[in-house]
Design brief:
With about 575 residues, the protein is an alpha/beta fold. The protein is about 45% helix and about 15% strand. The protein has 24 helices and 16 strands. It has helices spanning about 40-60, 70-80, 90-100, 100-120, 125, 130-145, 150-155, 170-180, 195-205, 215, 240-260, 285-290, 315-330, 345-350, 365-370, 370-385, 400-420, 440, 445-450, 460-465, 485-500, 515-520, 535-545, 545-560, and strands at about 1-5, 5-10, 15-20, 160-165, 180-185, 205-210, 225, 230-235, 275-280, 300, 335-340, 390-395, 430-435, 455, 505, 525-530. α16 packs across α17 (about 400-420). The relative contact order is 0.10. Phosphoenolpyruvate (PEP) binds next to β10 and α20.
Length: about 575
């Protein structure tokens, strides 16, 4: 038996036969062509581009109605890349000027583009480097006349559950894979925001990524166990281990099923403290999932997702339509729209600047204050949507009171402008701030006075407090949500909110981790916002917890400066 460790990006257990997907990167010949062959080589490349584009278009047109929306969006990104002059024109130039054969020219240019993406500050954009690689591979396959999915077709007739084993999985491949019965995904590459992760989560299929060598270790037909919980993959385990996993998988399925019965029950601790449970979403079409899991509101709409993966900015009307759709679908439940949290990002405006340290650069509110028109357009769209329900505005990465004042002045000017134009909006839209920079959490009092609510972004708060890049795999073992410094900043923020009588929520990943629910309750938290699929797990923890007892335990542990073991809060 072989056991590999990776990152669990979609939970659950899967058991089945391995289907090892085709070559990770094609071996391509590199040679120079004769001057008289240049035109023919350019045509060969252009034809391959066209065929690949047509092939993708067929996939888009025949997308099953129930296909996850991410697939369509990601395929469109691939279409855009296929027509991007940086890929197409530059490759043609390499054929013409350096007399490279088409494959060599394309891989050279693809590598250059991929490196540019890798240097980008934003996690999402950095991972789009994988899209460039996948698009390049697709065109290389077309040039070579081979398919990218290798032997998959041979397995689609199988009655047994299948586990897809790949170096990486492109969105187009994902569509093909839907036709087969597959129970899990395991890949060499990828992270929490890679395609495999995004699509697997939206399908509710377990996935482990970043396994490094799984594609070389597993062979077609090997029996695999995918453990999304422990982030492991077992290749050909002994029968006893398989039986143990079978019973764990059964229990897991039963517990998922029984969780749904909690959907309409109020989240209240044993001693009667009511807890608010809201959902984090990125796009309007995630609202039905949030509602199906009993979300009482949207605690975080990451609006930057409307802006990413496209070549032009969404207009005010397009943004308004998206925000209005969320608000209307949520009825009277609150919808918290976070203003843009983008970093130095060249896909929006063609700026090629890459900050030395983008996480500390012109990001989020800093980015918006430097681009007042972009900010005003978004604020107009958000305020207009407020006429249709309960909207709250959430400002990310606030660090200083001067930013608060500058943001408020812009919001006021947009309000005046809308009033002058006779546009309807809610005059009492609440304005809140993300607490994600330690400076704000340490000097919290005036910030708590300046806002109507606060939302703690633990993902960034941990990164900035501990000095650990949240996207750097080399230091991920040091990324510690339980560090006493982090817990004190959370506690201090919650206490300040109580003193100022404003709501404080946590919307970072900590809020959705059911192992930390008791700890957060013990810190006095009463508002949680998380990925919709985590809501019911967290609710189950809340229903079995005694808030007052937890508060006493956690307070004394914090005073002793111990690091807290969340497992010790279970009794
Ligand atoms: C956070 O930082 O915790 C957060 C919720 O925001 P994001 O993950 O989008 O930075
Ligand atoms: Mg953040």
């Amino acid at each position: 038996m072989i056991c590999l460790y990776g990152r669990g990006v979609a939970s659950g257990y899967a058991m089945g036969r391995a289907v090892v997907m085709g070559a990770a990167a094609l071996e391509v010949a590199h040679y120079r062509i004769a001057p008289e062959a240049i035109d023919a080589e350019k045509s060969r490349f252009s034809l391959a581009l066209k065929d690949t584009t047509d092939e993708l278009q067929v996939l888009i047109d025949t997308l099953p109605a129930d296909a996850p929306r991410e697939l369509a969006a990601l395929l469109n990104v691939h279409q855009l890349l296929l027509s991007d002059p940086l890929l197409t024109d530059e490759t043609l130039l390499l054929i013409e000027q350096r007399q490279y054969n088409a494959e060599w020219a394309l891989t050279t240019q693809g590598q250059l583009l991929g490196e540019q993406f890798s240097a980008m500050p934003d996690d999402y954009l950095r991972e789009r480097g994988a899209d460039v690689r996948q698009v390049v591979e697709r065109v290389l396959h077309t040039l070579a006349g081979t398919g990218a999915l290798g032997n998959l077709e041979a397995f689609t007739q199988s009655d047994e559950p299948l586990i897809v084993v790949a170096h990486d999985i492109s969105p187009a491949d994902m569509i093909r894979l839907r036709g087969a019965r597959f129970a899990g995904f395991v890949t060499d590459l990828g992270g929490p925001t890679s395609h495999t992760a995004i699509v697997a989560r939206s399908m509710g299929v377990p996935a482990v990524v970043a396994l490094g060598q799984v594609r070389t270790m597993a062979r077609d037909g090997d029996f695999l166990i995918v453990d999304g919980q422990q982030a492991t993959v077992l290749i050909n385990p002994p029968a006893a281990q398989t039986r143990a996993y079978e019973s764990m998988a059964l229990q897991y399925a039963q517990s998922r099923e029984s969780l749904l019965t909690l959907r309409d029950i109020a989240a209240e601790t044993l001693d009667g403290v009511r807890i608010g449970l809201q959902a984090n979403i990125e796009m309007p079409d995630e609202v039905p999932l949030a509602l199906s899991q009993g979300a009482q509101g949207i605690g975080l709409l990451r609006s930057e997702f409307l802006f990413m993966g496209r070549s032009s900015l969404p207009s005010e009307e397009e943004q308004f339509a998206a925000y209005q759709s969320v608000v209307q679908q949520m009825g009277q439940r609150p919808v918290t729209i976070r203003t843009l949290d983008l970093g130095a990002d060249k896909t929006l405006d063609g700026e090629a600047t890459v900050a030395t340290n983008p996480a500390l650069g012109q990001r989020a509110i800093r980015y918006c204050l430097a681009r007042p028109e972009l900010f005003q357009t978004q604020l107009r769209a958000i305020l207009r949507a407020s006429a249709f329900g309960k909207v709250r505005i959430l400002i990310p990465m606030i660090t200083s009171l001067s930013e608060v004042q500058a943001a408020r002045e812009i919001i006021d000017s947009v309000r005046n402008e809308l009033t002058a134009k006779g546009q309807l909006f809610d005059d009492h839209v609440e304005i809140g701030a993300m607490v994600e920079v330690p400076a704000m959490a340490i000097a919290i009092e005036p910030f708590a006075r300046a806002f109507d609510f606060l939302s703690i972004g633990t993902n960034d708060l941990i990164q900035y407090t501990l000095g650990i890049d949240r996207a750097d795999a080399d230091v991920s073992s040091l990324y510690d949500p339980l560090h006493p410094a982090v817990l004190r900043l959370i506690a201090g923020t919650i206490n300040a909110g109580q003193r100022q009588r404003i709501p404080v929520s946590v919307c970072g990943e900590m809020a959705g981790d059911a192992r930390l629910t008791r700890l957060l309750l013990g810190l006095g938290l009463t508002e949680f916002s998380m990925h919709p699929r985590q809501l019911l797990d967290v609710k189950r923890e809340i229903l079995g917890a005694h808030s007052n007892a937890l508060r006493t335990k956690v307070a004394s542990a914090l005073n002793r400066a111990d690091s807290i073991d969340p497992d010790h809060l279970n009794d």
